[in-house]
Amino acid sequence: MTDLNVHLALCQRLLDTDAKPVSWHPGHGGTRALRASTTAQGEVIVKIHRRPARHVQEVHAYRTWVPALGDGAPRLLATTDDPPAIVITAVTGVPLSQRQLDPAAEQNAYRQAGQLLRTLHAAGPSRFEPDWTAWLAERAEYWIHHAGDRITPSYRAEVRAHMRALQDLAPLPAVPCHLDFMPRNLIHGDDGIVRLIDFEHSRYDLAARDLVRLATRMWPCHPSLSRSFLDEYGQLDRVDQEVLGHCARLDALTMLCSTTLR
């Protein structure tokens, strides 16, 4: 049985026996998804997760935090642990990374993105325990170990110095985070509405971590989009800026390792 047939059979078992395939999305990192048409729910997405942990995280996010986004995200329709999969409502539109917009429309899209992230970060109570700065320092050591001789001693020392400085800021609150908050996961609809997808990395973390990839990969070349985003998300204070700077080093390390270990 092909992957497409597996996904379709899953949709038919969980949601609609008359479901039909619409399009196939190979996804990335081993995650696979099928867009299917159903009688009661219209078009839906059937997604089988590559790892059980990702499945648990995404189901939890959809059940606890995503409803706060309202029409700004898909709705969870069905889930199963065997295989680890979900069925969600399909979001129409084009990833913001692929949408060609005039400057005013693009700035509006990023204001919407800022509002979405602000709402997600407020969708659950903030937590001070466990110490997320210590956990991030442990993750840095994990990636340093896996990087091996692909990074220099001075690079290792630099990352560790940033992690120590991050821990010096503790205690810091953690909030519900997306942790892959990038234009590819922001769908811009023909109605001009931006919707957030792909919550398989979502968990409690430091809020500024959700801004790292935008701040390091996009905003340096597009400062107006930074201003539009922060107009709705909220301005960053000194601690936010410091966390962002320290976590940017961790993100760069993980990106380097992910690229070289493929």
Counted up, domains total 2
The run of helices and strands is HEEEHEEEHHHEEEEHHH
CATH level 4 superfamily of the largest domain: Aminoglycoside phosphotransferase (APH), C-terminal lobe
**Number of helices in the DSSP assignment:** 8
Overall mean pLDDT stands at 93
List segments where confidence is low: pLDDT < 50 over at least 5 consecutive residues. none
Question: Helical residue percent?
Answer: 40-55%
Shape: globular
Largest beta-sheet details: 5 strands, antiparallel
Span of the ends, CA to CA: 27 Å
Structural class: alpha+beta
Say what oligomer this is. single chain
- The total of beta strands comes to 10
The CATH class assignment of the largest domain is Alpha Beta
Rg over CA atoms, rounded to whole Å, is 19 Å
- Order of strands in the sheet with the most strands? 1-2-3-5-4
Fold and architecture overview:
The chain is an alpha+beta fold and 262 residues long. The protein folds into two domains: 3-89, Phosphorylase Kinase, domain 1; 94-260, Aminoglycoside 3'-phosphotransferase, Chain: A, domain 2 (Alpha-Beta Complex). Helices cover 44% and strands 18% of the residues. Strands 1-2-3-5-4 form a five-stranded antiparallel β-sheet, with helices on both faces. Strands 6-8-9 form a three-stranded antiparallel β-sheet, covered by helices on one side.
